[in-house]
Design goal:
- The protein has 715 residues and is of the alpha+beta class.
- It has four domains: 203 residues, glycosyl hydrolase (family 31) (Immunoglobulin-like); 275 residues, TIM Barrel (Alpha-Beta Barrel); 96 residues, Immunoglobulin-like (Sandwich), CATH 2.60.40; 85 residues, no CATH class.
- It is 22% helix and 24% strand.
- It contains 13 helices and 36 strands.
- Strands 1-4-5-12-11-7-8 form a seven-stranded mixed beta sheet. Strands 21-20-19-16-15-14-22 form a seven-stranded parallel beta sheet.
- Helix 3 runs antiparallel to helix 4 and helix 11 packs parallel to helix 12.
- The longest helix has 22 residues.
- It is globular, with a radius of gyration of 26 Å.
- The N and C termini lie far apart (90 Å).
- The structure holds beta-D-galactopyranose.
Amino acid sequence: MILKQITCTLFFFLCCIGLFAQKISWTKLAPGIWKGVIGSPEPYDLVKASGAVPNTAAIAEIGEAVFPLNPAQITGALSDGKTFLTFPLNRNEQLYGFGLNFQTVHQRGRILELHMDHYGGKDNGRTHAPVPFYVSSNGYGVFINTARYLKVYAGTGVRLDSEHPPVAKDRNTDKTWSARPYSDNVEMLVPAAGVEVYLFAGPTPMEAVRRFNLFNGGGVLPPRWGLGFTQRVQRLYNADDVMNEAKAFEEKGFPLDFIGLEPGWQSKSYPGTFEWDKKRFPDPKKFVSDMMAKNIRLNLWINPYVSPDASFYKQIKPYVGSHTVWVGAVPDFSMKEARSVFFDQLKKDQVSIGVSGYKIDEVDGYDHYLWPDVARFPSGHSAEQMRQTYGLLLQRYSFDMYRRINKRTYGLVRASNAGGVSMPYVIYNDYYNHEDFITALINSGYAGVLWTPEARASKTAEEWLRRMQTVVFSPMAMINAWSSGTKPWSYPEVAGQVKQMAELRMQMMPYWYSEFAKYHFKGIPPFRGMSLEEGFKQDARKQAVNENLEENPYAEAVSKEVKDQYMAGEYLLVAPLFTGQKTRKIILPKGKWYDFYTGDYAGDGEIITVTPGLDKIPVYVKDGGIIPMMPVRLHAPGAGEKYDLEIRYYGSRPGSYKLYDDDGETFNYEKGEYSWREIKTTLIDGILRGTLSAPAKGKPDNIGNLVWKKMTNTK
Ligand code: GAL
């Protein structure tokens, strides 16, 4: 007994003096990116699962940077088969990221377990993209490359060896005592005996995010049609219903680029057969090509759980997990054998006849239907690792099918993770809080994922219009009517306004497309939070710094958390209104801002209050902003099709814009078949005049006529 006590005390002592502390060996991977290794990292991780290949040339263009933290303050320790990590935090620092959160943007002070799951209404780390990456307002990013459930204490724990500890206070007498004292570190617990840690330098938070995105291959460049409008039809529609829906869009003049078929396209679903239902779709090949003749592509819903009635069930059975989902077998997509059986079926039955992409459903969770953590997989990967990466694997290998036939795809997925940056998929879910959808859009930009605030149905016409307004300022302009059967015109009082919004989406296609090209080639997230915007740093309110003040322990660190306005591309600030709201406040960063619709001056580094009316979603343009638009059309331009440009320019300052062009459909841009052209406005005799540079010789040139539109009346 005594011996045991002595051993325990000795053990505790050794822990305290850091016997279990591990040296982190840092290697520079690219300019401003370092990898640290602690212990023995597991062979399977997020980078391996995604197969992401860094775009080192683009990272080099951001430039060299010094190691952004004091390496001595980043510590790791191994104990109990787990890795303990500590990173320093300054008093004035705010943190963003830690995956696709829906209600919070500021993450300092939060405790999370990053765990793949559907979103259950709380920001606790369980989400569709539990990306273990955070970015600091001080201009650096940290990524933990693990496929394990990860515990995060983002500035909550107060260590005995803290360099900047809070003062211990007497609760009996001191009113400023707090249950949550100040913490000067971020700590994480990885349930593995080693892990890789990546550090991304800034100098600004945007550059740290860009390095992270480019490290993961750069953002996706969708096909042009992917940025048009998409409607997901009711669950049991047949070929005629779908065709009639397409005709109705055409007759009413509503834009439409692709239609999504929900579970009923398959002969059986939940679990699926992955083959067409021949009653509803007797001739799939003809159906797909008839739709294509109308310029409308098809996207198919799947979840990957294989019905015992699927034609390939026997072949895939040796390569599935020990547990089922809805009694369907769960392919181990980390195994080549499983992939080749599964994707061969998709190729043969659907991709080869022209299906443009997939919606990959239910790969995130709910614990009650997904495989449990006790499940086993034939590859030897644990159930936990499979859960954290399943969405990544499906994105990666379905993307591969399209890459092989040199056709781009753009679809939907309900689970992603770090490494998913370059995958042509947008995350969606079943949750439906409009405000939270916008907060998710903001957070997607810190997590290297895309998110759509899809519209399904609404209680009122007002809500419908408000939702449609945000849908068109998002990565995928979509109505998901799988259950409701809603059409864009279903609320007659606002059908006209909804149509205008859908048309605006199409008009803005040259802008959206160029912004996605910047995501791909430069790592700049097309939809992102205000904290990544230069000139946004709000002046920290001069408050007495009371480190133990419970309501705002980080008064210095932050200004207000901004959850309801965001940047869309280089020049636009979007500030949605929600049902019942007639008026709202908007924080304009430093510099002059102009109304997107009228070109009128709106403010400079100030908070404005607007009452835009129901028809408008407030959008502002930076001084010198240039927005390339095209005439309203029902479908995206096809490969090589010329389109006219209307170039709108705003404000009083000269500006410039990089306009991207390529065939819009293939991967030939990877072989250099693309052009960046420069739109410029210059002050000549006090008047702004615009020029568009010619494309380099032999490079794509799809631009027809050019119209310049001066939006701001300046003298
Ligand atoms: C849900 C999904 C919906 C719809 C539905 C069809 O899981 O989130 O968007 O696809 O399945 O059963």
